[in-house]
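Quick note —
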Amino acid sequence: MEITVKLFASLGRERFDEKEIQMPNGITVLDLIKKLKIDPEDVSIIFINNRHAELEDTLKDRDILALFPPVGGG
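Predicted structure written out below.
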């Protein structure tokens, strides 16, 4: 299945901003994050198709996954 992955801010550095990735059926957000070699603790906000999601949510063909790091600043 094909998933569009969008990485924001520091998550995209030295990786990519947006990419279509082929993944097996039944993969979870956590599985995909690990395949991308991203530490799950570095992901603070997750959206699937513009709706809030969790690490254990299962992805479907043509989903758009957006990952955001923790918000910093002060």
